[in-house]
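quick q for whoever's on today - can somebody do inverse folding on this one?? i tried earlier but teh output was garbage lol. tokens:
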């Protein structure tokens, strides 16, 4: 057959458009290899302990524990007997490890090693541990160690590969046959070989024993029939282990064909898991199911795998993509179009993945946005090359059978046929044709109007003339048009035809009827708005670091933070889309979240999907999301393209379980008890008074979401702590007495575990004991009572003595004061009488005046001395009489003046008698009379609210000069001392001030005496 020209083009097109078929299965395999931290790629056994950890035994890499994300490794350097592990088993708080050199028992961080032949399987039965070794069966007993069980000469020398129990009999798979025994001890009464082949594995399931013979197939024995039978299933061969999954599937791990899955009734093959499904090798050692309904596959040479069913289908470079990074996705009428790394576009339809030939001008160019018009044409925005417009046309192609035309001049009819093919014509639209920039961030097509947002130059609106290959009706929107922030991140059109744009600096605006309304920084922070979305007349914006905000769709939106009972897994929002069920899907650097909203736009629930949930792309790409006509969601990420089918089933979650991992007392681990048996029990840990520092470590193992588990705790009946990622608490300085420490966890779905409580009691020291304290208190009270009685007696006696002494002293002081008063009178009388005697012969008139004044003074002195207080008026009269006598008796004349400055009448003020006279006497006799100047004496009184002040001034030689010259007498010394002490007793310390009056030339002008006494009145 010869092909005409159109057929030739069709042939070339078919060669260029390579098609890769799509797999519709949602079963996923995630590999864990050396790059993830696995110590060795040969994993020979895998188990899950009661806490939920996966334990892996490797060949050469030792033992490792896996929590869903991280590996913790133990090897010979840590005390492990051998790095070559063939079997694992866990019981209570111990891990049994079968190695090529014997048995290792790990209890917490300690290893106990026992030598034996290589252990192939560890079988636990009624708290007893049996070991299937290369030379017979051994039993482990804690107090004895390892001992070989002598059963039969052939069994004792055989390689034991497996042991199972069917409820009545034990079945032992050896390299010399399948044996049945009624007990695993020397006295076993039934020891028979059922079949003499090399049996490598066995399992008991639904009243049947399935035993795998290496090259013969699977022997099925019915344990509830009269005869076990001898039915063979010829396929598969070379089985290493048998497992049951999904309750009705038998999974056979083989050494050459991967995993063969048979149903447990008719033994038909249901599926095969091998390299075609994503396994790196076909040598499988074992498969197990965990508590979260995942299946884990251990391989020899390929690490181990997580196998699970989900709603996601993932595509990457290994399954047909040009590269892993998917920058943009769009659902066009003719299928899904995606930008694949820098290799151009791909198209996905029912036939598979179609590679679209890259235009020569766009080699190694990134396409960041894709859309289509009503005609199905594709518009793609590039980085640096403008817009790629792919014009798609369907044309008829006629196929002609030219063999009929070879017979010329005949009437043979020419055979033709017609097929429809799609012809793609590429158009490049760039700055030379009218765009603002060749760096295109986003494209919108509304009918025949195209909107192109650039990275930093603005938005171009135009129509494209396909025939003339030029732009028409071009309108440019930039800073001059009102767009104040040109770094555009996203652009979308609402239901009213307004074109909205969001920017790197958090600005938002829209274009309506060719006019820009720039709303500015709507969140009042410089936070990038990565994506915008419209749904049910609401506007949603996704930010880079501040989560999602929403507002009613109007020209002045007021945004609120999207929040609720649960939070998003990341606030870095790259993608947003609503599915057909009204759920909001959000892409971030951690995967995708499905958000359930209520009518008030509050978050009701959040479902997170990461690598462990089937979303293998992990970090999503900006605005690379779309929804097809079937409601499937398509997500572009840095590691491929993922499709989500909402109609599929979602794996159910299980309630988390919390376990204590370690309890440290005074920084030492508590290894003597099984912590998980003590938790929530009546057991109480007894601690000494010095053991007041405890540390609790607890853990919930979630193999699907290991980093999303949160914890809280409380001590005794106190308040719960806030939820956090911390799963270790240090408690110091605890009080003596009973305590309880309670912890709780919750998973990524916020399902809470049952609280676990650990009880402990800190004994108090002897000095804190009640009986001891009462005894000490009684002794102290007795001693204190004795001291108190003695002290009271002594105090009473002392007080009595002191009272008697004070009474005597007071009496003596009273007598002394009166004596002093009387003592002054004779002295003064003596002086006056001598003066009068001298006047008798010389001046009789003066003598008469002196005698009259002296008599008056004596009468006043005798009268005042009998009183405790006299009026100031009486004191002034007495002072006048005294001074007048001194004037009459003096050898030189002097003047005196007594003044009063007070609102009170002198007759109302009371003062002690004979208080001022000694100072006046000193001023006259030792100041004025011994001075060279004419004498002047001034006595001044003034009052305040609390005190009476008295000042005595003289212009004599000065008190200090006088004291140097005069001969002191006992009378003078006693008078000054008594007067000073009287003032201090009346007015307090420093109530008397005596000073000399000094001129500027340092000559003495006299003496000034100031004192004060409390103001006392008679009303």
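ok took a stab at it. sequence:
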């Amino acid at each position: 057959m010869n092909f005409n020209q159109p057929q030739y083009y069709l042939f070339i097109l078919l060669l260029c458009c390579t098609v890769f078929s799509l797999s519709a299965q949602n079963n996923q395999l995630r590999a864990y290899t050396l790059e993830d931290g696995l110590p060795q790629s040969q994993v020979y056994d895998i188990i899950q302990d009661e806490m939920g950890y996966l334990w892996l035994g490797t060949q050469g890499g030792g033992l490792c524990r896996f929590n869903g994300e991280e590996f913790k490794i133990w090897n010979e350097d840590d005390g492990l007997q051998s790095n070559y592990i063939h079997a694992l088993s866990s019981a209570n708080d111990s891990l049994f490890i079968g190695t090529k050199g014997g048995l290792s028992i790990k209890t917490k961080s300690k290893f106990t090693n026992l030598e034996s032949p290589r252990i192939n399987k560890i079988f636990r039965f009624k708290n007893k541990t049996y070991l299937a070794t290369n030379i017979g069966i051994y039993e482990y007993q804690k107090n004895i160690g390892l001992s070989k069980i002598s059963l039969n000469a052939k069994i004792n020398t055989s390689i034991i590969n497996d042991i199972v129990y069917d409820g009545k009999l034990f079945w032992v798979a050896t390299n010399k046959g399948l044996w049945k025994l009624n007990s695993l001890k020397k006295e076993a009464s039934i020891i028979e070989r059922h079949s003499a082949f090399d049996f490598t594995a066995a399992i008991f399931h639904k009243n049947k024993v399935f035993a795998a013979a290496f090259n013969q197939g699977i022997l099925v024995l019915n344990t509830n029939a009269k005869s076990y039978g001898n039915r063979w299933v010829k396929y598969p061969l070379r089985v290493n282990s048998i497992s049951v999954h999904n309750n009705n599937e038998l999974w056979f791990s083989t050494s050459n064909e991967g995993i063969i899955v048979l149903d447990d009734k008719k033994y038909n093959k249901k599926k095969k898991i091998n390299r075609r499904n994503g396994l790196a090798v076909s040598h499988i050692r074992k498969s197990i199911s965990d508590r979260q309904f995942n299946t884990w596959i251990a391989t020899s040479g390929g690490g181990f795998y997580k196998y699970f069913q989900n709603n996601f289908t993932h595509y990457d470079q290994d399954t047909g993509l040009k590269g892993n990074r998917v920058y943009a996705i769009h659902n066009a009428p003719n299928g899904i179009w995606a930008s694949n790394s820098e290799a151009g576009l791909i198209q996905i339809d029912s036939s598979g993945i179609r590679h679209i030939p890259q235009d020569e001008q766009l080699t190694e160019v990134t396409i960041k946005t894709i859309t289509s018009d009503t005609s199905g044409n594709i518009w793609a925005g590039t980085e640096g090359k403008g817009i790629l417009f792919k014009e798609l046309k369907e044309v008829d192609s006629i196929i002609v059978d030219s063999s009929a035309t070879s017979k010329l001049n005949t009437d043979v009819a020419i055979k033709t046929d017609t097929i429809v093919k799609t012809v793609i014509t590429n158009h490049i639209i760039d700055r030379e044709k009218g765009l603002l920039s060749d760096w295109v961030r986003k494209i919108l097509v509304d009918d025949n109007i195209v909107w192109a947002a650039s990275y930093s130059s603005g938005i171009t609106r135009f129509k494209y003339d396909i025939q003339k290959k030029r732009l028409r009706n071009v309108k440019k929107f930039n800073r001059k048009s009102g767009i104040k922030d040109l770094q555009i991140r996203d652009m979308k059109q609402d239901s009213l035809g307004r074109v909205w744009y969001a920017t790197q600096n958090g600005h938002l605006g829209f274009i309506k009827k060719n006019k820009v309304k720039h709303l500015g920084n709507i969140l009042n922070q410089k936070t990038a708005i990565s994506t915008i979305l419209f749904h049910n007349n609401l506007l949603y914006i996704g930010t880079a670091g501040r989560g999602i905000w929403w507002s009613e769709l109007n020209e002045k939106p007021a945004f609120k933070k999207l929040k609720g009972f649960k939070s998003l897994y990341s606030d870095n929002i790259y993608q947003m889309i609503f599915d057909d069920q009204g759920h909001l899907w959000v892409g971030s650097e951690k995967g995708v979240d499905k958000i359930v909203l209520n009518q008030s736009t509050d978050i009701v629930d959040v479902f997170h999907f990461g690598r462990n949930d089937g979303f293998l792309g992990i970090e999503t790409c900006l605005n690379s999301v779309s929804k097809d006509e079937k409601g499937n969601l398509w997500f572009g990420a840095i590691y491929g393209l993922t499709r989500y089918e909402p109609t599929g089933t979602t794996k159910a979650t299980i309630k988390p379980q919390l376990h204590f991992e370690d309890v440290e007392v005074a920084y030492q681990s508590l290894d003597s008890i099984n912590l998980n048996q003590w938790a929530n029990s009546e057991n109480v840990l007894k601690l000494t008074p010095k053991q007041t520092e405890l540390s609790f470590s607890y853990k919930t193992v979630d193999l699907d979401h290991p980093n999303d588990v949160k914890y809280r705790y409380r001590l005794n009946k106190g308040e719960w702590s806030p939820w956090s990622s911390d799963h270790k608490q240090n408690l110091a300085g605890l009080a003596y007495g009973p305590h309880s420490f309670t912890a709780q966890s919750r998973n990524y779905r916020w399902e809470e575990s049952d609280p676990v409580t650990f009880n402990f009691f800190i004994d108090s020291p002897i000095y804190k004991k009640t009986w001891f304290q009462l005894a000490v208190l009684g002794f102290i009270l007795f001693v204190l009572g004795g001291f108190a009685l003695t002290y009271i007696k002594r105090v009473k006696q002392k007080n009595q003595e002191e009272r008697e002494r004070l009474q005597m002293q007071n009496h003596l002081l009273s007598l002394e004061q009166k004596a002093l008063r009387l003592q002054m009178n004779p002295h003064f009388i003596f002086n006056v009488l001598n003066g009068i005697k001298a006047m008798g012969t010389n001046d009789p008139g003066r003598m008469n005046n002196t005698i009259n004044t002296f008599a008056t003074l004596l009468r006043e002195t005798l009268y005042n001395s009998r009183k405790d207080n006299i009026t100031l008026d009486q004191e002034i009269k007495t002072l006048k009489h005294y001074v007048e006598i001194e004037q009459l008796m003096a050898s030189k004349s002097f003047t005196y003046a007594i003044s009063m400055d007070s609102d009170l009448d002198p007759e109302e003020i009371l003062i002690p008698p004979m208080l001022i006279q000694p100072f006046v006497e000193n001023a006259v006799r030792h100041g004025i009379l011994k001075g060279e100047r004419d004498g002047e004496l001034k006595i001044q009184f003034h009052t305040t609210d609390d005190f009476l002040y008295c000042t005595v001034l003289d212009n004599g030689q000065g008190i200090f000069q006088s004291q140097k010259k005069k001969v002191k007498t006992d009378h003078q010394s006693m008078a000054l001392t008594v007067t000073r002490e009287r003032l201090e007793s009346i007015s307090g310390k420093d109530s008397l001030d005596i000073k000399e009056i000094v001129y500027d030339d340092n000559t003495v002008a006299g003496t000034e005496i100031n004192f004060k006494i409390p103001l006392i009145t008679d009303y």
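fwiw DSSP finds nine helices and 73 strands in the chain. also The radius of gyration is 56 Å. so keep that in mind when u check it
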